Amino acid sequence: MMLGCECFCWQEHADVELPLLQPHPFSLPSPIPEWPLGQGFATGKINLGELEVVKITKFERVWSCSLLRGKEKGVTFYKPVGIPDGFFCLGYYCQPNDQPLRGYVLAARERECSSPEVYCDYDSDTDFPALRRPVNYSLVWSTDCGDGCGFFWLPNPPLGYKTMGIVVTDTPDEPNVEEVRCVREDLTETCEIMDTLLAADANTFRVWTTRPCKRGMFCKGVSVGTFFCCTYFVSEDQELEIACLKNLDHSLHAMPNLNQIHALINHYGATVFFHPNDDCMPSSVQWFFKNGALLYKDGKLEGEPIDYLGSNLPGGGTNDGAFWIDLPRDDSARKNVRNGNLESAELYVHVKPALGGTFTDIVMWIFCPFNGPANLKIGLMSIQMNKIGEHVGDWEHFTLRISNFTGELWKVYFSQHSGGEWVDAFNLEFIEGNKPIVYSSKHGHASFPHPGTYLQGATKLGIGTTDDAARSKYFVDSSLRYQIIAAEYLGDGVVTEPCWLQYMREWGPTIVYDSRSELDKILSLLPFFVRFSVENIFDLFPTALYGEEGPTGPKEKDNWLGDERS
Fold it and tell me: Which PANTHER family match (predicted)?
């Protein structure tokens, strides 16, 4: 299928010798330290059972595509180079042109379980090799624009094998079958499309990044780092013609040990800044309990004090509404707890495998005794609510994702109410060495990578609630003030989970706001030509504006076992 030049401009390397890397590859602000001794963490190679993989970060540019329409700056397609002897390419790499070169693809080799180099407890139940050459290639798409051509090839795997990625050339000659390897089907898992890298239009050539379909603490899918492309419509949950790898090494030998976890937190622990006008600061859980938090049981009017360790909280079970926590009944004590206590605040750390144990997620939870009222924005008007948005108990988090090949900080997840976003390391702000900055929003404590005002709701109409984030003298340095509360993969007894972590009920009572009366007052202030009916404006604000169930603790959140929402 041919695509005209009105949409794309392709740049080939032709006879010009191109540099191995782009001029501005990204590196963290400071060198990565030498980590404490361990088993397989940050050794450069990871054992997946029958396969051993390395991360390739050196590339040779094959083709660049600049979009002539729209604001996109196009993408570049790369061939991985510098692959160690004995390892084989699984597919090519692609990334946008408007960011530093910092991607990777995996290269693999078959290994014998008796090899002393890497621990392995996986034995194959088949006589077929783990890696095989493709039978041949199918041309997915090509373009002829000006002086150059681009050709995209899908390796056709032998029966019982899966393709891992696409090959790109600048000539119509079919690639050599030695260029890549296919992987035996039982060593793979399905993958799905993620971010769109290139899109001519809905019905022609499109390029996406990929990720394993199943992701979470106990999932085995390993991202290869390759891209997928096609000329037909693909839904987000559709099985692709390429696959990802599967980690069959149950020991997860590439995960950090306890000493290495502490070293990672000391080196990468973020500084969390709170808004200068926020009067709902965080505290430690123990401070919250010691200063009068009460446990209520359904059917009883009086709450009981909570032991400072949370040992009298009902553990286990599910959030069945039978129990909840509330502030002290005394007005003075209630106000004191509502304001929090920054001096006692610390980050509660959950460490878990990600992407089949090729990455480590260091999830940092912060507790605030109270979530303050929302701030509404309607056009140019900004209105501070009196009660709407308030609730007792607020658990928020951010996540550091670390590469287990090198120990490098790869990206950070910023949790924002019911969602959030992953931000690559090159888009982060750093305060000291390789320690990123997290901005916690006023009253709501959502996490953001940069200061500013962020709108939730009908953003195109300028209507919704705002999250205001700014630097101030109020902060917590998580590299110093933290407590590791869980790291299940280390085994029983290595990390002692606190009693309060087993409390699965709500950390605050359910609240229903009288939103209509407050919004009626707001509507009366609007000019007639921008006035909405009460019913219509209700639809434009986040649903949480009208009522709040008490929040649950970290272990009841989806991302405790699963991947982050993005």
Answer: GNK2-HOMOLOGOUS DOMAIN-CONTAINING PROTEIN, VACUOLAR PROTEIN SORTING-ASSOCIATED PROTEIN 62
446-467, pLDDT tens digit by residue?
A: 999 999 988 877 777 777 788 8
In whole angstroms, what is the distance from residue 413 CA to residue 215 CA? 15
pLDDT at 390 over 80: no
**Cα dist. 411→2, 31, 359, 361, 423 in Å?**
37, 16, 11, 10, 6
Contact 468, 445 (CB under 8 A): no
Cα 341 to Cα 338: distance, rounded to the nearest angstrom: 9
DSSP per position, 302-366? S-EE--TT-TTSPPBS---SSEEEE--SSHHHHHHHHH--GGG--EEEEEEEETTTTEEEEEEEE
> 209-222 as b/e, with b when 16 or more CB fall inside 10 Å?
bbbbbbbbbebbbb
Q: How far apart are CA 367 and CA 283, in angstroms?
A: 6
CA-CA distance, 360 to 402, in Å (whole number)?
A: 5
Q: For residue 211, give both structure tokens.
A: 């990720």
In the sheet with 452-458, reading across from the earlier edge strand, the strands are: 381-384, 375-378, 463-469, 452-458
Amino acid at 148: G
Q: Residues 511, 434: contact at Cβ < 8 Å?
A: no
User: In 10 A of CB 174, how many CB atoms?
Assistant: 15
Rounded-to-integer distance, Cα 195 and Cα 211, Å: 10
Dihedral sign, Cα of residue 228, residue 229, residue 235, residue 238: negative
The two tokens of residue 387 are 């009660």
Over residues 218-248, the pLDDT tens digits come to 999 999 999 999 998 888 778 899 999 999 9
Question: What pTM was estimated for this model as a whole?
Answer: 0.90
Task: Enter the tokens of residue 480.
Answer: 């110093």
- Rounded to whole angstroms, the Cα distance separating 411 from 400 reads 6
